[in-house]
Amino acid sequence: MEKLHRNSKNGLLEFYKREMGFSSPRIFSHRVSASQALIEHIDLYGKLNGHQGCVNTVAFNSTGELLVSGSDDKQIKLWDWAARKLKLSYPSGHLDNVFQAKFMPFTDDHKIITSSADCQVRLSQILENGSVETKRLSRHQGRVHSLAVEPGSPYVFYSCGEDGFIQHYDLRSCSATKLFFCSSYAAENNRSPSIWLNSVVIDPRNPNYFAVGGADAYARVYDIRKYQANASTKEGSPVNTFCPNHLIKSDNVHITALAYSNTSELLVSYNDELIYLFQRNVGLGPNPLSPPSEETEKMTESRVYSGHRNSRTVKGVNFFGPNDDYVISGSDCGHIFIWKKKGGELIRMMVGDRHIVNQLESHPSIPLLATCGLEKNIKLWAPSAKDITPLPENFQEIMESNKQGSEDHSRVSFTPDVIMHVLSLHRRQAHVYIERRYNSEDIESDEEENDEREAYLLGFSDGDPPEDGENSRECIIS
Predict the structure, then answer these.
(1) Given the DSSP bridges, would you call strands 85-91 and 75-80 parallel, antiparallel or unpaired?
(2) How far apart are CA 71 and CA 54, in angstroms?
(3) Mind listing the pLDDT tens digit for each residue in 220-279?
(4) In whole angstroms, what is the distance from residue 111 CA to residue 103 CA?
């Protein structure tokens, strides 16, 4: 019994202890929400339908009562997820796919920030009469994949983009400041100007620290106190870097997503590789290319989570449970993977999309999960199944297929010069678009229909813009 209690596997034991008065409501809630028995009962709770394109982002408000979503259809939608009811829908003001949408805390859920493939970061203000005003706060020189809100702040957040820059925002002045750019460690003595960035996250225990990841193998941690408002032309200097030992100096992987736990552990998801968990302050230091000692190699060993495949899209990664007891990720095979954080054991594999599961968001206080992918809806997952749901009978075959696909794809590698050449082409496309789009001072022209063709450049497609009559809003795998 004591073993069951320690591992929180037996949900019935926790109910018994609560009824007998042996555990407080708060302890009971945490233990049950973290129990493996509850995770094994998670099933599809419902779907939220309404978007006309792939759903790229979902986020709960601070209380968990509302869910915000953004899509390729450029719409922002607010949901009462419990009633499965759409509360509000409005045009984001973006000219291309919406990649991120987040509530600003302590604003009565009336302020929402968004980012997009059109290089813009925008603020939506929901007015008392129910109408919405949106305005551009800044723009990058490339697509903006990620936003990070400072915990507990109604004003401060960050963005990162494919231009390699980190921008800092303060809504009190509606100002955006370029802090610095991230350069590549591809060659120790010949560092590239910048790398594209896919993810920025803030350490919840110390918001002075934030981590970024993108087009190489290194997750970088920075201290905001080292940067001033005039630092925009400077290269950033991380206070720590994280990378699995076997990927140091690798030039054929990149980071798609990061996540911090509530104890400042850093979770890193790689394209066509695995997911790794790093302990706080146990990194490679500011220069990851310095030859590590044997002791450092042992200290920097990370936990590994495998079985999924992260290749065809920019996938997220996250924690699940009140104490971040589980690691969750989507996959190219359309499944949702749930591993135990401690030990890395795979305990659930659920079909979450007919194609690909991209993003997963945990409810802030109850065992509920929102996911989205290439389908045009949001799926809600809760412990609603009557019986324990085991792993699929063919889970080994699915994992082996994912592994084989990743290995085959990773054999096709590109030199840093080729990667930077492709990126420079992308930047030139974005620059041409921005010059054409923003040369005029008439901001009202943001909404004109003929801008949609120009916005297509930011998709960085290998093909030509869509012909008349074709649907330019179809989901694009990037």
Answers:
(1) antiparallel
(2) 6
(3) 999 999 886 555 558 889 999 999 999 998 888 999 999 999 999 999 999 999 999 999
(4) 6
